[in-house]
Specification:
The protein is an alpha/beta fold and about 375 residues long. It has helices at about 15-25, 50-60, 90-95, 120-155, 155-175, 190-195, 220-230, 240-245, 250-260, 270-280, 305-310, 315, 325-330, 335-340, and strands spanning about 5-10, 40-45, 65, 70-75, 100-105, 205-210, 235-240, 280-290, 290-300, 320-325, 345-350, 360-365.
């Protein structure tokens, strides 16, 4: 399990440039005109994790397999998209299918790329996109609420539960606030998720800045960060131009040297991934052996059988136990055998909650 993240924003803010850099491909056309990305481009990228190399070295693994994330580059949205303007209908259909939204916002002035609004104002751009998404959700939800209300009056319990989840979100949307501002009670979580609304998806604002501001950000990205904080959203600073340059460097040493020359210690991809993990509440566990060291992703709070199921459904179905070593213990004990001898390997049952960095061997029987 990873996550499917849709890269959205107004035309010409750096979405496709970022996508190309993230996937190290030229699959998405990054041209200086609106709608250069007609269909959503999908790229799977490995999650960088230094722990993999350390584990593989101790286990003398033949190969390393990182976990993967999926990014979807979605056509630029313009005013009126909720009414079908531009490529609005395609945009809205594709964005409903993702787990989270990476909203790219232009936070640099100048340059050769024309801003679709004629000037650079990231908060205005966020409002433009948010308004279209809220209008789309409002239109969809009002129709469904009317149908649910009719069934609820007939005594349909499921319709009553749906209506109870819809009504507070409808109130927010009518007040010009996104659905994610609603904090559902535990029993409302599933009904809200089943509504598949765009504005209830978690949002990561990706502030695309000029190269000189790639580390500290700038005044415009600071305004976006403040906006994100008020919404309970996240934000990261990235220079799509730098990422594009890094992506074409074939050697890891060259990439590190290039980043170092700019005062950076990591790529923007690493920052986006970390923020995305935090946004969706994901964690990584490992399987380690002589054939391979592999990273797997599950939701935070996942029990051992669910983690086993991330590898294979048979592992979950026939789960017996999880032989578990914490990452720090695996390194400190010089590998699996040392951890066993030191009593640092634990046999965990069905109720064990997987921790980030756990090295696990699943025992199962089917």
């Amino acid at each position: 399990m990873g996550f499917r993240c849709g890269i959205v924003g107004l035309p010409n803010v750096g979405k496709s440039t970022l996508f190309n850099a993230l996937t190290a491909t030229a699959a998405a056309a990054a041209a200086n005109y609106p709608f250069c990305t007609i269909e959503p481009n999908v790229g799977r990228v490995p999650v960088p994790d230094d722990r993999l190399a350390a584990l593989a070295a101790l286990a003398k693994s033949a190969k390393i397999v990182p976990t993967q994330l999926e990014f979807v580059d979605i056509a630029g949205l313009v005013r009126g998209a909720s009414k079908g303007e531009g490529l609005g209908n395609q945009f809205l259909a594709h964005i409903r299918e993702v787990d989270a939204i990476a909203h790219v916002v232009r936070c640099f002035a100048g340059g050769d790329v024309t801003h679709v609004e004629g000037s650079v104002d990231p908060l205005r751009d966020i409002d433009t996109v948010d308004t279209e998404l809220m209008l789309a959700d409002l239109d969809s939800l009002e129709k469904r609420a009317a149908a649910a209300a009719k069934k609820a009056r007939g005594g349909d319990k499921e319709a009553k539960d749906q209506l109870a989840a819809m009504e507070p979100i409808l109130a927010l949307l009518r007040a010009g606030k996104p659905g994610r501002a609603f904090r559902p009670a535990p029993e409302q979580t599933d009904p809200v998720r089943q509504l598949q609304l765009i504005t209830t998806k978690p949002v990561l604002y990706v502030c695309n800045v000029e190269e000189s501001s790639a580390g500290p950000g700038n005044e415009l990205s600071a305004r976006v960060a403040a906006r994100a904080a008020t919404e309970g959203a996240s934000s990261v600073v990235i220079s799509a131009a730098i990422e594009a340059e890094v992506a074409v460097l074939p050697d890891e040493a060259d990439r590190k040297a290039f980043l170092g020359s700019l005062g950076l210690t990591e790529t923007g991809l690493a920052r986006v991934i970390r923020a995305g993990y935090a946004l969706l509440g994901l964690l990584t566990f490992f399987t380690v052996g002589p054939k391979e060291t592999r990273a797997w992703t599950v939701r935070a709070g996942a029990k051992a059988p669910e983690a086993a199921g991330a590898i294979h459904t048979d592992f979950e179905r026939g789960f017996i136990c999880a032989e578990t070593i914490a990452y720090a213990d695996y390194l400190a004990c010089n590998g699996e055998q040392g951890a066993k001898e030191a009593g640092r390997m634990r046999q965990e049952g069905r109720d064990y909650t997987v921790k980030d960095g756990d090295v696990i061997l699943f025992r199962f029987n089917v």
